[in-house]
Amino acid sequence: MTTPHHPTALSATFPRSVFRGEDVCAAAGLPVHAAGPHPHFDDSIWDFTGVIGLPRYLARYARILSFTEILNPQWRALAKEFIFARLAPDHPAVRELAHAYRTPVLVATVNGRLTVLTGWLNWLTEQGVDSLGEVTQQHCAAYLELRKKVRDKHGVIIRDSSPGYRMDVVAVIQELGYYTELFTTDGYVPTFRPWGRRTAYAVAGMVRRTGNTTPPLSNDVFQPLVGAALYVVEVLAPHVKELQEQLREMVPNRPGRHSGRPTWKVEVVQAIDRHLREGDPCDVALDHVVYQRLADGWDPDDPLLRVNLISLAHETGRHAFHSTWLPTLRGRLEEAVREVGLAKRWGRTAALVERADGRGSVPWTLPMNTTEARLQLSRARTACVIALAALTGMRKSELAELTHDCRLPPEQLGEGRLRYRLKGKVIKGRKLGGAHDQWVTIKQAYDTAGVAASLADPGKSTGHLFKALSFFTPYEWFVTWVNGPDGRRLGLAPIPEVPVSLRMLRRTLAVEMAHRPGGLLAAKIHLKHISVVTTEGYADRPGGAQSVLMAEFGHEEREHKTRVALDAFHDYQNGIRPAGPGASDLLDFFAFVDEQLDSSGAPNIKRSDQEVTNLLAKRAKALHLGTANYCWFLDPSKALCLKLAGAHARGATEPLIGMCDSARCPQATHHAGHRPVWAASAESKKVFIATIGRAQRTEKARLETELARDERVLAEIDVHSGTAA
Question: 353 - beta bridge partners?
Answer without folding.
Answer: 362
